[in-house]
Specification:
The chain is α+β, with helices and mostly antiparallel strands and 319 residues long. The protein is 32% helix and 26% strand. The strands form 3 sheets. Strands 1-2-3-4-5-14-6 form a 7-stranded mixed beta sheet. Strands 8-9-10-11 form a 4-stranded antiparallel beta sheet, with helices on both faces. Strands 12-7-13 form a 3-stranded antiparallel beta sheet, covered by helices on one side.
Length: 319
């Protein structure tokens, strides 16, 4: 067995997607997603996509990323790198390929000036928030062996909409808040600047980017719902903003100064109701904390956890 490591070359795409779907069986992709989320990522560098080859066949791969384009302002997060996927064909799991790939990936990230590497909380183009220990126990054990540690454990949730009916109590709550000066409705073009700034400032730049790029890529702005207090945006929710997947809910948030008034609950149900009007059968998202206020809200309103991930980190300076 003679394994050669090299960086990505034109023509590797189909073989990488095939290997991905053989190894990462719980998260299959197609060549369009590979192109859009990897090759067209502004931070993609072919030197960071390292493949293992035996007799011309790709049998393993890892993707390492550092920022070339800031998420906001001029912050390149230069001390941080990310690994967004890794995979080795089952027949080669004991051939030390994973170790070699990770050494090369970490060397790439370190040479770019980073001091730590995460799996896999990279925005904007992550495939999953972290490692799913239940579905990929060998992958989780491998990360621990390579010196990664758990940072936190987000969950993915889903809610069926087949029998969804807008709750009467939410109607009453909404009427009460409207009497107090709040308003709820679909975003207008004139709201977009304020909304994107609100998302950037109160939450994170990836949410503002999702709104802007979603609309530029053809998302119907009517999928974005906003809550206002005296014409000032204090909350929003949307669906279909990521990859054009209509059933994907979020991002979603309410100004922390306005929390505790049920505004999030109203926005959540207004959005689910809009999704049901579109004959969508379910709503899902990949990332929240079960213990956060948002997580509690979801669980109390029909969402169920269906996957759990671990965001992992390794300090490269301690190698």
């Amino acid at each position: 067995m003679r394994i050669m490591l090299r960086t990505f070359r034109n023509g590797d795409e189909a073989a990488l997607v095939q290997l991905w779907n053989e190894v990462l069986v719980h998260d299959p992709i197609n060549e369009n997603r590979f192109r859009n989320q990897i090759l067209l990522d502004a931070n993609f560098d072919p030197k960071g996509l390292i493949v293992a080859v035996e007799e011309g066949e790709i049998v393993g791969a890892v993707l390492a990323i550092t920022r070339k384009l800031p998420m906001e302002g001029t912050n390149l997060e230069s001390d941080t790198g990310w690994i967004t996927f890794f995979m080795v064909h089952q027949q080669y799991e004991r051939a030390n390929i994973g170790h070699q790939l990770f050494e090369k990936a970490c060397d790439y990230i370190k040479n770019e000036g980073a001091e730590k590497v995460y799996f896999s909380s990279y925005a904007p183009n992550y495939f999953v928030p972290g490692i799913d220990e239940e579905r990929y126990p060998k992958g989780f054990a491998f990360l621990l062996k390579k010196g990664f540690r758990k940072v936190y454990s987000p969950v993915a949730m889903h809610r069926a909409l087949i029998d969804y009916v807008y709750p009467e109590q939410i109607k009453e709550l909404k009427k009460q808040r409207e009497l107090e000066g709040y308003s709820f409705g679909k975003v207008q073009d004139g709201d977009l600047y304020e909304l994107i700034q609100f998302a950037n400032v109160h939450f994170n730049a990836d949410w503002g980017r999702a709104i802007r790029e979603g609309i530029l890529m053809g998302m119907d702005p009517s999928r974005i719902l906003v809550a206002k207090k005296q014409d000032i945006v204090v909350g929003f929710a949307l669906y279909g903003g990521y990859e054009g997947i209509r059933e994907r809910f979020g991002p979603f948030g309410v100004d922390e100064r306005e929390q505790g008034k049920g505004l999030g609950k109203i926005l959540l149900h207004d959005t689910l109701h809009e999704m049901r009007k579109q004959s969508l059968q379910g709503a899902w998202f990949l990332w929240t904390s079960e213990k956060s206020s948002a997580g509690h809200l979801y669980l109390k309103n029909g969402f169920k956890t269906y996957r759990k991930f671990h965001v992992m980190v390794k300090e490269l300076t301690n190698n």
